[in-house]
Specification:
By secondary structure, the protein is an alpha+beta fold. The chain has five helices and five strands. The protein is globular.
Length: 156
């Protein structure tokens, strides 16, 4: 699990915000898109198992499992984290949050971007449907970024 650092003032980041989606980023399966877990226990088990395709950034390569997919922190203090994790998953369930898995394929093939493209498209569709946001500009930005990334790799 990774932390997103926002470029906002602490007061805004620390406010209570409604959560609409909690998704485990699966980079190792060949499934596609965004999948909703049937029950919260399956979601919790997947997150706790922490399976991922390690790419060598943490001295691991290949399929790896680490408590909550994080070799730093939670693994060393499971007795502290377990009650917090239970509380978090209960709150997600009680508040009707979409809890699922998004299949990125990022651990599979550097050349084939179909998996990440479909995952991004389904995520944007979720945002548009669930939140009523108009996300076409975001989608165009993502497409332009991916074109840039492709050109960059070809040139350098």
């Amino acid at each position: 699990m990774h932390v997103l650092l926002h470029q906002l003032h602490y007061e805004i980041v620390a406010m209570n915000h409604r959560i609409d989606l909690f998704a485990y980023a699966n980079n190792y399966d060949d499934k596609l898109g965004l999948h909703r877990f049937d029950n919260i226990e399956d979601a919790k088990a997947t997150c706790v198992e922490g399976k991922r395709m390690a790419k060598g950034t943490t001295q691991e390569v290949g399929i790896s499992t680490t408590y909550f997919a994080n070799p730093f922190g939670p693994m060393q203090q499971q007795e502290v984290c377990d009650p917090l994790i239970d509380k978090m998953f209960k709150a997600l369930r009680d508040n009707g949050v979409f809890v699922g898995e998004i299949y990125t394929h990022l651990g599979l093939s550097k050349e084939n971007r179909d998996g990440i493209n479909l995952a991004a498209k389904q995520l944007l569709e979720f945002i548009e449907k669930r939140l009523g946001c108009f996300v076409r500009n975001i989608f165009l930005f993502i497409q332009m970024f991916m074109i840039y990334e492709h050109l960059y790799k070809k040139c350098f």
